[in-house]
Design a protein that fits this description.
The complex is a heterodimer of chains A (361) and B (528). By secondary structure, chain A is an all-alpha fold. Chain A has a single domain, classed as ABC transporter involved in vitamin B12 uptake, BtuC (Orthogonal Bundle), CATH 1.10.3470. In chain A, 71% of the residues lie in helices and 0% in strands. In chain A, helix 4 runs antiparallel to helix 12 and helix 5 packs parallel to helix 7. Chain A starts with 35 loop residues before the first helix and ends with a helix. Chain B has 528 residues and is an alpha/beta fold. In chain B, helix 4 crosses helix 5. The longest helix of chain B is centred in the middle third of the chain and has 16 residues. Chain B is globular and about 75 Å long. The N and C termini of chain B lie far apart (49 Å). The chains are: A mainly alpha (361), B alpha/beta (528). Chains A and B meet through helix 1, helix 10, helix 11 and helix 15 of A and strand 1, strand 2, helix 1, strand 4 and helix 10 of B.
């Protein structure tokens, strides 16, 4: 035969170890190129990345190092504590969003329910003379019903959650604002402010309770997703809804439940945010909607799975670190917005590629 | 037939290709002569698909050389480059844009701004190809999503044929086709061969190769182990080359285990699979293995789904347990009554792609793994272990992603998923489609074991050989009606195939008359 054409530098496939289970012929197209050795390195990395967000954690350390070197006081305890408080707030708003993304949806009503929750426990409570507990209960039940309806509707009629949640967001805010007569100021009770005030302490530890609350939520979410039957069914529903149906999973209930959960968790996050912000108005939720979604995506949770809430936690910390460094280096808040957007695009592009790799291996 | 003397259309030598640690192709050499139909056979994972994907420009090889029409060329960097060189490939997965018309689907990718084809010309050529390929071609403006699986695959085949390629590659592309479309496609392949165009045929079906193959190249574990010319092969030799093992003993049919004394476990009455169809009945006994056959889309699928409570049809399906009778009204209800359904499309309907092997196994029965509020991973694994031996499932670790397994092993895990629900009736929708010979053998053995344990099995299969080998009786469907029922004694290849088409020699017709539908509606019939 004629020329022996080798597309790869290095020893070529004949020297590859033949180990590993024999797999079926790969199904998706992939591009060649790259030496056999280099490729197996990248594939090992991709496989590791699929189990643990190596890239995100590495970026986290790099960002912190850059910040600590370039910005005075960035590495101090106070600064780190403040950043963790901000990350907790972002993380708490992303609890429901993580589940929604896992079942393959998207929840744009997070901002609306944050505002609705915050307004309910501040203004409505004041207006009607409810105590805090009653107000909270009203908010939770209301949000749960609206969220459940969203999930049910999307699944039943097979429509984009994008649009339904947008509509639901408007309804949630509207319903509360009608009650308050459009007056948009309310103040949170003092104890609520203490939950997330940076100078607050938790049982003597100089770290505000919201950080520990977040950690507790993280542990519960981890147990829920990885150890419970419902968690497993959420993953299955997101991965392959049709197979899930055939495997006797009640996928409509899963959708209904997940969206109800997302609405309730947004309301609760709104309550915490009300305490953090002190006063509440309609713009409270906006920035958090975007950041919650960014935290989910950057953390490495993919639409329809795989993913996990602890990944979102890493994503939230990374976002806050990056944002702080950017501002500290003299950039503006609009610059930070551009960066957040770019990060989301980058993350999506990376997972697109990763998915391809994983189906090739 | 191949003409000697002319250079091969395509010739690859010493091809190698790895995906990470997996060596998909170790050493492959293949020559395709002008005007020949060249079959490639081998088990799943033997490298057939990778080989044709390299020829189609989808993958780039690690090593090897390529000649087109006798002159050395670079491997095709993109599918477009392969197409430009006259190679068109149809893959097993049905690749159509379901929201576009038949016409658009056939011409997709062929047009560019610089190369426009007049609308009338497009329609003329598309309908010519479709008319040759399909007995009842759909209208060119029909939306592809509304067509049957077989018709959709015919559209993607038409897309390749319209390019008039020098080399047509059919990579398991016939498995989705119904019988008549397949026959017509083979007719076209033969006509093309007479005109000097070549075809590579990858298939798991020996009868297809016998039908149109000129030469066969056998692959095993990523290497081509030999090429046989017409007359040099028989099933024994091929299996031996594919497996590398000594020739397997000729298989006898299974011994039936069910008898007239075996208890009835399921009864269907007055089933009409489509409005106006002649209703029929069925009673299924423990230990019975019943085949469901017919041309694609003639009601077999609906029948299985009706038994599993997935598709509401006129009539009644009842689970019988001793003197207790309960109607099957929903899939969940069916499952509760001990009826398990293994769907047809492994990837779309069964597999949770990135989830682990054990998770894929346990998903439908996870309530058994509950320990307090949590799931016990260990209990899932323990339950799964029972099925590893029974189904001969080969896995690395249970925590690996399901996609690390071959198609055959994925299918076994899916079947294990449903066996774990301890069904009394197992409904299998074409379970051996696209899986390798050994995995098929394992499944046959399994069905035998399960039948001996008293499980009743209803299995749809598109392979005639499977019916001959496995089934106690075969129900043949035509146009949404039960057209014939062949008992084990009556079961021959000729009779079975003839009954697909309503031939007169279709054996004992269920109505006792010829199958020309003389019976009035409402005739009730009890099987066996």
């Amino acid at each position: 035969m004629t020329e022996l054409r080798t597309a790869t530098p290095g020893p070529g496939p004949a020297s590859d170890p033949a180990g590993g289970p024999r797999t079926g012929a790969p199904t998706s197209g992939g591009r060649g190129g790259g030496g056999a050795r280099a490729r197996s390195f990248w594939e090992t990395l991709a496989a590791t990345q699929a189990r643990f967000p190596v890239a995100q954690v590495a970026l986290l350390f790099v960002t912190f190092a850059v910040g600590a070197i370039a910005i005075e006081g960035f590495g101090s305890y106070n600064s780190v504590r403040n950043m963790l408080v901000l990350a907790s707030l972002v993380g708490l708003t992303a609890v429901g969003q993580t589940l929604v993304v896992l079942v393959g949806g998207l929840d744009l009503s997070v901002s609306g329910f944050i505002v609705a929750g915050a307004l309910t426990v501040t203004q409505l409570a004041e207006m009607y003379g409810w105590n805090f507990g009653t107000a909270l209960l009203v908010a939770i039940v209301g949000a749960g019903l609206l969220g459940a309806f969203t999930g049910w509707l999307c699944n039943r009629l097979n429509i984009q959650p994008l649009i339904v949640t947008l509509a639901m967001s408007a309804i949630a805010v509207g319903v509360v604002q009608v009650q308050t007569g459009g007056a948009q100021s309310g103040s949170a009770p003092a104890w609520l402010s203490q939950l997330s005030a940076p100078v607050a302490t938790t049982f003597g530890i100089p770290m505000p309770p919201v950080v520990f609350l977040w950690l507790a939520v993280g542990v519960l979410m981890w147990l829920f997703l990885s150890r419970t039957r419902t968690g497993r069914q959420i993953y299955a529903t997101g991965t392959n809804p049709r197979a899930a149906d055939l495997a006797l999973i009640r996928t409509r209930r899963i959708w209904t439940g997940v969206f109800a959960f997302s609405a309730i968790s947004a309301v609760l996050a709104g309550v915490v945010l009300a305490g953090f912000a002190g006063s509440v108005d309609g713009s409270l939720g906006g920035p958090y909607l975007f950041q919650s979604l960014a935290a989910v995506i950057v953390g490495g949770t993919v639409f329809g799975g795989p993913g996990d809430y602890w990944r979102t936690m890493i994503g939230a910390i990374l976002l806050v670190f990056l944002g702080t460094v950017i501002l500290g280096l003299g950039f503006t808040i609009p610059d930070r917005q551009v960066m957040y957007g770019a990060i989301i695009l980058l993350a999506m592009a990376a997972y697109g590629r990763e998915k391809k790799l994983s189906s090739r291996i | 037939m191949a003409e000697l003397g002319e250079p091969p259309v395509v010739s690859v030598s010493n091809l190698a290709k790895s995906f990470g640690p997996t060596r998909a192709i170790v050493d492959a050499t293949l020559q395709v002569l002008p005007g020949e139909v060249h079959a490639i056979v081998g088990e799943n994972g033997s490298g057939k698909s990778t080989l044709v994907k390299i020829l189609s420009g989808v993958h780039q090889p690690g090593a090897g050389s390529l000649e087109v029409a006798g002159s050395p060329v670079r491997f095709f960097p993109t599918p477009r480059a392969a197409q430009a060189a006259g190679i068109a490939t149809v893959f097993q997965e049905v690749l159509t844009v379901d929201t576009r018309s038949v016409l658009d689907n056939i011409w997709i990718g062929l047009e560019s701004v610089s190369n426009r084809v007049r609308a009338a010309e497009k329609r003329r050529r598309a309908s010519a190809v479709l008319a040759e390929l399909l007995e009842h071609p759909p209208a060119l403006d029909d939306e592809v999503g509304d067509l049957s699986l077989s018709e959709r695959q015919a559209c993607s085949i038409a897309r390749s044929l319209i390019r008039e390629p020098k080399l047509l590659i059919l990579d398991e592309a016939t498995s989705a086709l119904d019988f008549s479309t397949r026959s017509r496609l083979f007719g076209m392949v033969r006509r093309r061969a007479a005109e000097g165009a070549s075809t590579i045929l990858i298939t798991h079906r020996m009868d297809e190769i016998d039908e149109i193959g000129d030469r066969i190249t056998v692959m095993r574990s990523g290497s081509t182990v030999g090429t046989l010319a017409l007359g040099e092969w028989n099933p024994g030799i091929l299996v031996q080359m594919m497996t590398g093992a000594a020739e397997q003993a000729a298989r006898e049919g299974r011994e039936p285990v069910a008898s007239a004394d075996s208890p009835v476990v399921l009864e269907a009455r007055e089933l009409a699979l489509r409005p106006g169809a002649r209703p029929f009945g069925l009673s299924l006994r423990a230990g019975e293995v019943v085949g469901v056959a017919g041309l694609e889309g003639h009601g077999q699928d609906v029948f299985l789904k009706a038994l599993a409570g997935l598709e509401p049809v006129a009539g009644e399906v009842e689970r019988v347990d001793g003197s207790a009778r309960q109607a099957v009204r929903s899939h969940r209800g069916a499952s509760r009554l001990g009826i398990a359904y293994v769907p047809r499309e492994r990837r779309a309907e069964s597999i949770f792609e990135w989830m682990s092997i054990v998770e894929n196994f346990a998903i439908a029965t996870s309530s058994e793994d509950r320990r307090g509020p949590f799931l016990s991973e260990r209990r899932s694994s323990t339950r799964f272990a029972e099925y590893l031996d029974l189904l001969k499932i080969k896995i690395g670790r249970g925590g690996d992603a399901i996609t690390t397994l071959s198609g055959g092993n994925q299918q076994k895990v899916t079947i294990a998923r449903w066996l774990a629900s301890h069904p009394r009736i197992l409904i299998l929708n074409d379970p051996t489609r696209g899986i390798d010979v050994n995995a098929k053998r394992d499944l046959y053995t399994l069905l035998d074991v399960l039948a001996k344990e008293g499980l009743a099995v209803v299995m749809l299969s598109t392979e005639v050989d499977e019916h001959l080998e496995l089934m106690d009786r075969v129900l043949v469907f035509r146009e949404g009606e039960l057209a014939a029922e062949l008992s084990r004694a009556e079961l021959t290849r000729e009779r079975l195939v003839a009954s697909f088409f309503g031939g007169q020699e279709a054996g004992s017709d269920p109505t006792g008359t010829a199958t020309t539908g003389t019976t009035s509606t409402g005739t009730e019939r009890q099987a066996s």
